[in-house]
Amino acid sequence: MLRVLKQRIITAVILIVALIAATTLLTPFYFALVLTPIVLIAAWEWGGFIGLDSREARASYCVTIALMLLGLFFLLGIGPDVTSLDATRVVTILLLGLTFWCLSLFVLWGYPDNRDLWNDPSRIATMGIFSLIPTWIGLVQLKYMQTEGYFLLALIVLVAAVDIGAFFVGSSFGRRKLAPELSPKKSWEGVWGGLAACVLLGSGLIWLLHSQMHALSTIQFVMLFILTALITVLSVVGDLLESMLKRNQAIKDSGAILPGHGGILDRIDGLMAATPVYVLLVMLMLHYGELA
């Protein structure tokens, strides 16, 4: 037990340091390049959700995602000398991602009676595209909008706050099961704990933004507080969707690349679901005052 805990802590520290370095030190273009293989590893893991057992089949799925990402470099004009991306195209992709996650809520609501509607390799493969591609472009867009990486780091720590708050409150006070068929350990009390943690941390970040970077208008305050609630809801949806897909294939973790933590998807499920709405609202908020 202690050995596993030590392993988890070491992995977490390395991930945090690497994340902060990549987010704050790299230029947007090189950040996009570094993010690409991470998404491709996640695509490899998604192949397990699809039921792709052979390396060749998983590699084919990864190549498909890689070609899409390469196409996005050209479609959005991502390059070393580019300072901003085509907002209309970015918004279109993010809206497709947000639509997918909203529909996923209804899929989760009807589980397990609706398995015939989605339990098909081609449909699960498509779900992976709508999960991974908007996440990649959303994170890249955040970096282009604010090159110091503060908006990007804020998203990551808010999603982490939801997970941490849900874990500790759910472990201590969890009584009412959230989705026993999908994840027996998750409770409604954990959800409220995650929401409280996200709102509290979000309030602190909003205050820092207002006091240290740029004075916020009333509408910006309202939008940011609403955003903390949306991040909580969608983080839970992302977590439950991954639980559903893992349960469907009878697997415990999406992968084993992160010692003590499982796979990439095990760590970014909530982030994937929260990214589209977060980026869309940040982009909308920028119309009400220059913050970048």
Short description:
The chain has about 290 residues and is an all-alpha fold.
Question: What features would you describe in this structure?
Answer:
This protein has a two-stranded antiparallel sheet. The mean pLDDT is 90. The protein has one domain. The protein is mainly alpha-helical and 292 residues long. It has helices at residues 2-25, 28-50, 55-75, 87-109, 115-118, 121-145, 150-173, 188-213, 218-249, 264-285; strands at 177-179, 183-187. The protein is built from 10 helices and 2 strands, in the order H-H-H-H-H-H-H-E-E-H-H-H. The longest helix has 32 residues, at 218-249. A hairpin with a 3-residue loop joins strand 1 (177-179) and strand 2 (183-187). Helix 2 runs antiparallel to helix 6 (121-145), helix 4 crosses helix 9 (218-249) and helix 9 (218-249) packs antiparallel against helix 10 (264-285).
| Largest sheet report | 2 strands, antiparallel
Class based on secondary structure composition and strand pairing: mainly alpha
The beta-strand count equals: 2
The percentage helix is over 70%
Distance between the termini: 45 Å
The percentage of residues in β strands lies in: under 5%
- Shape, please? globular
| Low-pLDDT windows of residues | none
Write out key terms for the chains shown.
3% strand, globular, two-stranded antiparallel sheet, 292 residues, 10 helices
Indicate the topology.
Elements: H1 2-25, H2 28-50, H3 55-75, H4 87-109, H5 115-118, H6 121-145, H7 150-173, E1 177-179, E2 183-187, H8 188-213, H9 218-249, H10 264-285
Helix pairs in contact: 2-3, 2-6, 3-6, 4-6, 4-9, 4-10, 6-10, 7-8, 7-9, 7-10, 8-9, 9-10
